Amino acid sequence: MLPISAITLDQARKGDRLLIQAIPDSTVRVQVVRFGLSIGSIVTCQSVMPGGPVILRRGFQEIAIGRDLARTIQVSRQAS
């Protein structure tokens, strides 16, 4: 899998396959670890609610990440 483009999670689109590349803020890093996510995790964007959370899927789990939190997580789109 090669990275296609680097973005923040709030810029993801439905269907994007994403690699979490960086979580600069240590407080945010602790929050997403509670969701079972970390740097290197690959997730799929299930949907993006207008002005609301980004819904991610990892395996059989769906996770809603608030827009403000999503702005701090750096990801890259992955080729399928």
Number of helices: 2
Secondary-structure element series: EEHEEEHE
Largest sheet, strands/sense/barrel: 6 strands, antiparallel
Provide the helix percentage.
10-25%
Kindly provide the name of the CATH class: Mainly Beta
Q: Write down the overall mean pLDDT.
A: 89
Gross morphology is globular
Spans of at least 5 consecutive residues whose pLDDT stays below 50 are none
Q: How far apart are the first and last residues' alpha carbons, in Å?
A: 7 Å
Structural class: alpha+beta
Computed CA radius of gyration, to the nearest angstrom: 11 Å
Relative strand content: 35-45%
Secondary-structure topology with pairs:
Elements: E1 3-8, E2 17-22, H1 26-34, E3 42-48, E4 54-58, E5 61-65, H2 67-70, E6 74-78
Antiparallel strand pairs: 1-6, 2-3, 2-6, 3-4, 4-5
Description:
It is built from 2 helices and 6 strands, in the order ββαβββαβ. It is of the alpha+beta class and about 80 residues long. The chain has a single domain, classed as Roll (SH3 type barrels), CATH 2.30.30. It has a 6-stranded antiparallel beta sheet. A hairpin with a 5-residue loop joins β3 and β4.
Describe the structure concisely for a colleague.
The chain is α+β, with helices and mostly antiparallel strands and 80 residues long.
Based on the model shown, name its key terms.
single chain, 80 residues, alpha+beta, SH3 type barrels, 6-stranded antiparallel β-sheet, 6 strands, 42% strand
